[in-house]
Amino acid sequence: MGLARAWAVTLHGVAGHLVEIEADVGGGLPGLHLVGLPDAVLNESRDRVRAAVVNSGRSWPGERILLALSPATIRKTGAGFDLGLACAVLAAKDVVPQTALDSTLLIGELALDGRLRTVPGVLPCLLAARRAGLRRVVVPVAALAEAALVEGVEVHGAATLGEVLLWLRGEGVLRAPDPAVRAGVESAPDLADVVGQEDGRRALEIAAAGGHHLLLVGPPGSGKTMLARRLVGLLPRLAPDEALELASIRSVAGALPADGPLSTVAPMVAPHHSSSMAALIGGGSRIARPGAVSLAHRGVLFVDEAPELKAHLLDALRTPLEEGEVRLARSGGTVTYPARFQLVLAANPCPCAPALDRDCLCSSLTRRRYLGRLSGPLLDRVDLRARMLPVTGFAAPSGRSEDTATVRERVLTARSAALERWATHGWRSNNEVPGPALRGPFALPRAAVRPLDRALRAGELTARGADRALRVAWSIGDLAGLERPGPDEVESALYYRDRRVA
Questions:
Q1: What is the pairing mode between strands 15-25 and 2-12?
Q2: Looking at CB atoms within 10 Å, which of 182, 271, 384, 497 has the fewest?
């Protein structure tokens, strides 16, 4: 009898768990038994692995083969185990030395002819291997650029199973990755292209400075989409840990760009209003996949024509807006995906949406019902609401509008002030500061919050809305270079929460 082991990784969301593959060959009737909670794809690897080994010029053992995946209580998913299974079986028959497998992670799907195919989630698999202490990894050649993003791990790329077997025997050399490739910084559309709309531009600047959520309401062609798409150009570049976290999500979703896996540009995701719950929030059978809210992590989720989106989809955004993550429960287990994004909603004021409001044919009840599709609890989580006016000319009222570079400089200065203030508490922007902190250690003077008290007594504001208005006031103060906001900044924050806009 022969006994051998190899290492692989299974993913639950973007969290990887190291899996020990044990192969016991010999004794009993010929056959292959796979235990340890494999999913359907992994169960089918029995036939793929056998064909790949034979077609690579190696003999398949004509004995009883038992393959155990440990820990046995964790469900194993995907075809990325194929390479590890094949090498464990061959190590049990002394085709490759066990010592070569002891500290090596093996990732890849096997074609029937022995070619090695890449699989989703290579990046989080390598991060899990590094945490577990493995320092050598073999991946498909197609995943080398992605694998190169993980430092502290010796990465090797192979095109076929035969190459891997020769390398494990010390008779061949695998390919080394090129230096990590980062995506080029794309030039975002310029804010100077937006004519007029001072109220909307100001709201966009405040949203960028504090990471706040934004609602734009106005007639078609007034520039709602133009403004929303220029928000990314105002945001700071992602920190290295943020960029790696975003790349891990994209890797699991199979959406990692080949030209530059690691991007420091904040993402912008704009799902269509006909999107399903799985596409927006995440989902799928057995183990859920990340949705648009996770792909927009550390960036912007733009929902155009928001009232056209089904009500249950809009309300499903409420939890990730509050918690910054999505928890999805399926038969294969519960997974958690990061989802800390800025939400930008755009809406027409009514279904007929004429260029000028005086030409509207909708009744007051129809108008209320249309924007009423944006529920109160959802709007309560939107910090800024801006009315977009009809465009009546192609020239800006006071010359050329400010460009992205000018506004971005103010935004970055405000962001730096906020980061310096909150860094010791673990918060990166004003939008992340919890309400108790704003009402406790960082409480504003009584005179400054008096407008909030009036709004709360009049029922114009909820407790959550008051906290969000305080966060916006801090952002307005940061843009003005103030040490802390005063009554004017609080009044401005309340102005942008006026329910009459929506």
A1: antiparallel
A2: 182
Q: What is the pLDDT of residues 309-363, one digit of tens each?
A: 998 999 999 999 999 999 887 766 678 899 999 999 999 988 988 888 888 888 8
| Neighbouring C-alpha atoms within 13 Å toward the C-beta of 75 | 15
Beta partners for residue 4, in sequence order: 23
Torsion angle (degrees, nearest 10) of CA 215, 216, 220, 225: -90
Question: What is the side-by-side strand order in the sheet with 154-158?
Answer: 31-35, 64-70, 15-25, 2-12, 104-106, 136-140, 154-158
Using CB atoms within 10 Å of the CB of residue 81, give its burial: 0 to 12 exposed, 13 to 18 middle, 19+ buried: buried
Predicted pLDDT at 391:
75
Closest among 38, 248, 28 to 123, alpha carbons compared = 248
pLDDT digits (tens, 9 = 90+) for 397-431: 555 678 899 999 999 999 999 999 998 998 999 99
pLDDT tens-place string over residues 210-253 = 999 999 999 988 889 999 999 999 999 998 889 999 999 999 98
| Residue 110 and residue 1 in contact, taking contact as beta carbons nearer than 8 Å | no
Q: CA-to-CA distance for 127 and 121, rounded, in angstroms?
A: 10
